[in-house]
Structure formats: C-alpha cells, structure tokens
Amino acid sequence: MTADVETVVRPDSASSQTPARVPDHVAIIMDGNGRWAARRGLPRVEGHRRGVEAVRRAVRSAIELGVRYLTIYSFSAENWRRPPAEVADLMGLLKLFMLRDLAELHANDVRVRIIGARDGLSPDIAGLLEEAERRTCRNTGLTLVVAFNYGGRQEILRAVRRLAEAVAEGRLRPDAIGLDAITGALDTAGIPDPDLVIRTSGEQRLSNFLTWQTAYAEYVIAPEFWPDFDHESFLAALDEYNRRDRRFGGLSDKAG
Ligand code: IPE
Ligand code: IPE
Ligand code: MG
C-alpha cells in the first residue's frame, strides 16, 4: 500500500530545508505587485512583470518539493474593476506567460488547468488557455491550476446552474445532489481541496478565492509582496503549515 503523500517523510529530508510533510495542494493568492512597484517609484505594471518571475520560481519550488497541485490566483472576477490600462497589462502578461512558458512547463511534465469563467475573455486569450490545457493534458507531474477571471461565488453559481439544468432535463434527481455532486460540478472537478492557502503582502482575506474548496484549508499569511516571494518564502510557509494541527472537526492525532 502506498502511503498518503502528506505523511511521507521525503527521502531527501536529510536537508534541514525540506519540510517533513509536504502538502498535496498549495494555493497562492499572489498579492502586493502594485505596492512592490510603488515602494520603488515604478509603475504598477513593473510589479506585475516581476510577479511573473515569482510565478516561475514558485513552480520550480513546487516541483522540487514534491507538491502535486499548485493553484495561483492570477486575475479575479473583480479585477475588471481596475483601470482599463492595468487590465490590459495583466491580460498581456498572461498571454506572454502562456506563449513563452508553455513549452518549458510541458518539458517539465507540468499539467496546466485553468479555472474561472471563459466568457468575457478575448478569443486570443481563450484560445491560448485552451491550447495550454490541451497540450499538457497527459502530463503527470505537477498540476498548475491557473485561476483566471476566477471568482469562488461565480464558480458555485455556474455549478448550481449546471446541476439545475440536469434536474430540469430529468437527468438528475434533486435528492441525488450531495456534496460530491457539487464538488464535481465546479471548475476544480478532480482536483483535491487545497491543504494550504498562502496569501502574500500581509493581507488577511480570501477575496473570493476557492470559496467552496478551502473549507478546511490552513492559511498562511506571508509578509512579503508577491514579487519578493522566493524559495525561502515557500519553505517558510511550509514550515508554518507543519506546525499546524489539522483536525477536520475531529480530534487531534496527538489527543490521548
Ligand atoms: C496582485 O497584486 C496581482 C493581481 C491582483 C492581479 P496587486 O495588483 O493586487 O497589488 P497591490 O495589492 O495593489 O499591491
Ligand atoms: C486578489 O487580490 C486577486 C488576485 C491575487 C488575483 P486583490 O488585490 O484583487 O484583492 P483585494 O481587492 O485586495 O481584496
Ligand atoms: Mg492586491
């Protein structure tokens, strides 16, 4: 029998840098790009550019540490409220990332999944997202989940509509709708719930991120702005995670 990934003491744990328990799924709210830039008297877009470099680092860290799923919050359903020029910068950076990084992600056996609403996106962006998912769908290494045009409440709404349609068409009985049916109707179908949510820049809120899926996630607030988040920061977050006692409403393993 194979041990649960979470409880495996990794073979290279001789290094003091390697945490004892590596979460299966780490989800990151990448926050603070604008403040990083403002501190330096730079335009906000420069913070977003440096944020893309931090994404590349986080992917490398996740692979190195043996994280199975890494979700990154790239653009929220509410981020459309920003000035049009900033929205255009963010769209442009996503396009560049997909164009420049997809080959390397693929070479590293990374599977890309996109969550969020596809309608409202320009056809070129929608096409790139589809291409990224299609090209990497057979990869078995890290799954990189990109939350783009994503809102947790909107995702639940889409799932409810899907289930309601199935009921209306007679394919589903209302009393057959259980927690699994809802979980399976979300964009994240097939992806385990996050074990650890990291938010950078010191902010302590969820901002409509993975509303359903984070019911029992552990939260770690990292003080650094996202462009400064590096491998050490990742390790520090996992270190804090390792000090948590996850009880899921039951009793601690440590309870006598
Ligand atoms: C995170 O940085 C990137 C996105 C939300 C797209 P912000 O742009 O939110 O940076 P701050 O929070 O204004 O510093
Ligand atoms: C959350 O950050 C969205 C992303 C990281 C993509 P925001 O900066 O948009 O969140 P608020 O507005 O501070 O809650
Ligand atoms: Mg922010």
From TrEMBL:
EC class of the enzyme, as a word: transferase
Active site residues per record: 31, 79
PROSITE patterns found in the cross-reference section: UPP_SYNTHASE (PS01066)
Cofactor(s) annotated in UniProt: Mg(2+)
Claim: Magnesium is one of the keywords in the record: yes
E.C. numbers: 2.5.1.-
One Pfam family this sequence matches: Prenyltransf
Signal peptide: none
Binding site for Mg(2+): 31, 218
Cofactor note (record): Binds 2 magnesium ions per subunit.
Keywords: Magnesium, Metal-binding, Transferase
Subunit structure: Homodimer.
Family: Belongs to the UPP synthase family.
Functional note: Catalyzes the condensation of isopentenyl diphosphate (IPP) with allylic pyrophosphates generating different type of terpenoids.
HAMAP family attached to this UniProt entry: ISPT
Protein's UniProt name: Isoprenyl transferase
Source species: Methylobacterium iners
